[in-house]
Amino acid sequence: MAALPADQSLSADKDRLMDEFSASGRWIASRARDWYERLPWLVGANFVPSSAANQLEMWQAETFDPEGIDRELGWAADIGMNSMRVFLHDLLWSHGVRGFEDRISRYLDIASSRGISTMLVLFDSVWNPDVALGPQPEPRPGIHNSQWVQGPGRALADRADWARLEDYVSGVVSAFGQDERVIVWDVWNEPSNLNGGRFAELTDKWELISELLPQVFQWVRAAAPSQPLTSGVWAGKTLYDDAHARIQIDNSDIISFHDYQTPERFEAKLRDLPRDRPLFLTEYMARTPGSTFEGILPIAKRERIASYCWGLVAGRSQTLYPWDSWSTPYIEAQPDPWFHDVFHKDGRPYRADEVALIRAITA
Predict the structure, then answer these.
(1) Stretch 210-221: mean pLDDT, rounded?
(2) How far, CA to CA in Å, does 266 sit from each of 24, 44, 263, 272, 299?
(3) Which of 89, 140, 239, 354 counts the most CB atoms within 10 A of its CB?
(4) What GO terms in the biological process aspect are recorded for it (predicted)?
(5) Is 39 exposed, middle or buried (0-12, 13-18, 19+ CB in 10 A)?
(6) In angstroms, what is the C-alpha Rg of the chain?
(7) Of 102-116, 151-165, 214-228, 231-245, which gets the smallest average pLDDT?
(8) Does the pLDDT value for residue 8 go beyond 50?
(9) Cα–Cα distances in Å, from 208 out to 152, 155, 156, 165, 292?
C-alpha cells in the first residue's frame, strides 16, 4: 500500500485516536474490550513477599528480596496463577529514582520469567498514614497487616507537595508505560477508605482525595502509557453510595472492584457494576466472611473476570489474621481458618484442596 501524504497521515492518526479515546483521554469501551479479548483469563494475587511487612520493605534496597520473590512467584505459577497486583510508593521514587526503577525492572524480569504479568498500584489510602523510609517497625504480634502504609499518607494535606507526587507518577509511568511486562496501572487503591478509626486520619482526607484523584488520572494519561488505567471501587452500592466511586469509574479504562462477600452477594455486586468494559476483581478471598476460591473463582471464570486474591504467602504482612485482630490480636494461636494467604512460608499449601482447585480451574 502506498504511504499517505503527510497531512493525510496526520489526519488518519487523529481520526484513529478519536475512535479509541473519549475527550478526557479515557479508552472507549470497545477498545478496552478488544484489548481484553487478546489476554488469557487472569488469575493471581496481591503480592508482597513474605519477607516484607509493607511496600517500603518490599522495595527498599536493604530489604529487597529477589530470591524470595522468585521462589514465591514460582509457587504461584505452579498452581496456574499468571498475574500479580503489586503496590509501589511515592517516597521510594522521590528518594532514589534510579535504584527504585532498577528494582522494579528486576521484579518484572522475575515475574515475566514465571509467565506472570503485573498490575502496578501507584497510591493507597489503606492503613497507616504516618510513613517514613528506612528500617520499618516490626509487625505487631497477631495483628492483620499491622505495618502497611498509605501513600502518600499525611503528605496528601500539603498541596505544595503535590508537584512531587506528579513527578513520581510521571516518572514511573514514563519508565514502564510501554513495558509489556506491566498489564494495568491501578491509579489509587481504596481512595475513600478511612480505616475504621484505627488511625488518626486527616480531617479533610475525603475532600483532598476528591480533588487529587482526578488529577492523578490526568497525570498518568499525560505520560501516554500503552496499558489501561483503573481504580478499584470497593464500598457499598458502588455507583451511588461513594462519591469517589463515580470518579473512579468515570476515569477508568477497565472497571476494577473489591469484594470479600459470599458468592450470592458477589453476584449481586456484579449487577451494580457497568458491564460494557472488562471487569477486574482486584481484591477478594477472605475465608471467614465466606469469600473463598471455591465460591468465587467459578463465577469469575464464567463471567471472565480477572481475579486477584489478597495475599499469597503468609509472612510479615500477617494477613492470615482477620481484620478484627486490630481489636483482639491473635496472640495465643493462629485463626482457624486463615483469613487470607495461600501458602505457608516454606511453600506448603494452607489448604491442598484450594490449590488443587486453582490449578484445575486455570488449566
Answers:
(1) 97
(2) 31, 18, 5, 10, 9
(3) 89
(4) polysaccharide catabolic process
(5) middle
(6) 20
(7) 231-245
(8) no
(9) 12, 11, 7, 14, 35
The full set of domain ranges for the chain reads 43-361
Given a contact cutoff of 8 angstroms between Cβ atoms, the answer to whether 342 and 311 are in contact is: yes
Q: Could you tell me the pTM of the whole model?
A: 0.94
pLDDT of the residue at 330: 98
CATH architecture of 43-361: Alpha-Beta Barrel (3.20)
Mean pLDDT, the chain, as a whole number?
A: 93
User: The cell 513520581 sits on which residue?
Assistant: 168
Q: How far apart are CA 323 and CA 363, in angstroms?
A: 33
Q: Work out the pLDDT band at 19, boundaries 50, 70, 90.
A: low
